[in-house]
Amino acid sequence: MSKTIETSVVIIGGSIVGLATSAFLAYRKVPHILIEKHAGSAAHPRAIGFTTRTVELLRMLDADAQTQGTTFNRPPRRIQVESLAGKWEEEKHWGKKPHGPPSGVKGGSDPNSGVLSPVTGVALSQDKMEPIFRKRAVELGAEHYLGWKMTSCSQTHSGVEVTAMSKTNEEIKVQAKYLIAADGSASPLRESLNITRHGVGLMRSISSILFRCEGIRKYLEKGFSQFEIKRDGFEAFLVSYPDGRWALMTYKQDDARLSDTEQKDLIRQVTGENLLDSDIEIVAHGGWDLAAFISDQYQSGRIFLVGDAAHTLPPTRGGYGANTGIADGHDLAWKIASVLSGESDPYLLDTYEPERRPLALTRHNQVFARPDYKEYLKTSEWKLPEGTEVIDDSAMEFGQLYRSNAILGSEDLSLPEAQTPAEWAGQPGTRAAHFWIKQHEQRKSIMDLFYKHWVVLSQNRAWKDAEREAAEKCGITTSFVQIGADVVEEEEGNFERFYGVGKTGAVLVRPDGYIAWRCAEGPDNAGNVLAAALSKVAHAQRKKN
Questions:
Q1: What is the pLDDT of residues 352-366, one digit of tens each?
Q2: What pTM, to 2 d.p., does this model score?
Q3: 3-state DSSP call for residue 232?
Q4: What are the domain boundaries of the chain?
Q5: Each residue of 60-85: b (16+ CB within 10 Å) or e?
Q6: pLDDT tens track for 153-184
Q7: Are 425 and 449 in contact (CB under 8 A)?
Q8: Domain 3-72+118-198+293-369: which topology?
Q9: Fold of 436-537
């Protein structure tokens, strides 16, 4: 006999993106259930390196990942070699120019540290990051059904119903308002909805061997952590993880079925070292497909795609895979919370796809505009848009532009896809820039004031009355922060510099920390002006004249 559970949201898939989405929903007190067919994280580390933006979101959750991983500020360095012990040839740069000193090295410094963000990225593998999100989600009230597999799914105009079964043949039926599909690149949910995908496509099949070998750690001393092995028609890829594990990737599917002895022989071949069997510990092995696809839809009725279900991207030194999916979940969570609270009309959810899909498409194209993967364009029907150039890493990380009906002021199609925060200077549709402030004698980032609800920022106290009036008219939870009074800039002028408003102007920041609207100088009827803007971007249910 099955048990029926009623909740607000059901998440299918409990890998990194599903877990992050669960944590973001729990942070906003949205009742939900996560269903994952596996009992825990996969043995393979998979993604390595979580970007500064992801760590900003962990900071929001009060889940400190930085203490558990080596911080990094630049993409990992890669070099082509015949073998580790053989000839080292040329460094393979991620961007248009060399990235300078080694990255991912403890104690490394970043000239932008504390300038673009209050945190830095972490060189932590996915199997280490997943428990952080899982633990925080459960602490905040999430229910996770691990070891349960979805067996059916249906939706109506008013909700969704999912049936799931455990490994011991117990069955549950989950009735929810919305479903979030975080079920991976193959996504049975996406396929059942007949959502198509486009992109460079399937690139090649990979066989992967995860191992430990203390005898080759010396090759990391020059600051390289990724090695392209090329010699005499043989190709492989070797990457190190901060905890001492290595992953050897080859391009023969049969290599995934090699015996331990054969795998160790292959490791000797790529390292060029005369290693004993006892020097090498095989941890795991398997196979996967290297591919690049963007789903043509991110939403079908009450079902939303996140992560690899929405966009499958190859591993990159820019962190475009898991990190992009984590941000999907963050964007969707606040919108679902606002709709379920009754503050926002369900049409707010229709802004998810217009914001997140173009961003993923830009990242897809950036992958193939860069040297690491450019060669795959030769065998694909996919063509980069004319004039595509490599975009600066800080612009990709902190300055991709949202265009949707939850933003006022980003409609101009001549605006670039991405710029640095300094170049944007408060452009609506971009992440609200970091700068340091003092509040009650405590040093904080201005970003620490966001993420709970809508925030109005201004140097002019008159906007306090406008904020109250707008909140009352729209039925939207807001707060007001006066720069120079409620908080003090550590460096005077940063608010005007980074947010592009004068002393009487104001900025409206969304619950996800993105700028929804700004007014360069204060109008006479500020309350009406702010209420009109808030009503539009929040899709307010209650609208009073």
A1: 999 999 999 999 999
A2: 0.93
A3: coil
A4: 3-72+118-198+293-369, 436-537
A5: bbebebbeebbbbbbbbbbbebbbbb
A6: 999 999 999 999 999 999 999 999 999 999 99
A7: no
A8: FAD/NAD(P)-binding domain (3.50.50)
A9: Glutaredoxin (3.40.30)
